[in-house]
Amino acid sequence: MLEDNLADILEKARNGLGLDIPELCARARITPEQYAAITRGGAPDNQTLGALAQTLRLNAEGLSRIARQAYRSEPDLLPAALVRVETFFENYGAHAYLWKIPHTRACLLFDTGYEAAPILEQIATAKRDLKGIFITHPHPDHTGGLLQLKKAFPEAK
Fold it and tell me: What is the pTM of this model?
């Protein structure tokens, strides 16, 4: 499952380019109403999606696959020692990655997702001891479970 949905990707790209919604719509030659419908989960037509991709400097084919929900990441490609843990807040998902260090009970966590419960469950199931937490950046979908995890594993760095 891809972490970001179409609306997330469009908004992150728009913000990254410093465009407000009226400017984006003017450049892409779409209406603000069309953009609002897309960001609320509406299915865009190919022409609108292509215009947005070009304006936001995104890959049109990849964006189209995401819009059609035809894009799937490949969790089977992860090494056995690396476990992807899905966390959720309302309808939004975010991933955390638990690295089970071979030949030890230790594990490391990369991001905490929105919530600690699925991560704590994975650690308990694997009979591991969390030794460290790495945060890639300070957004709630990457740090939401941090306080609960630090409470459960106060020695984790």
Answer: 0.56
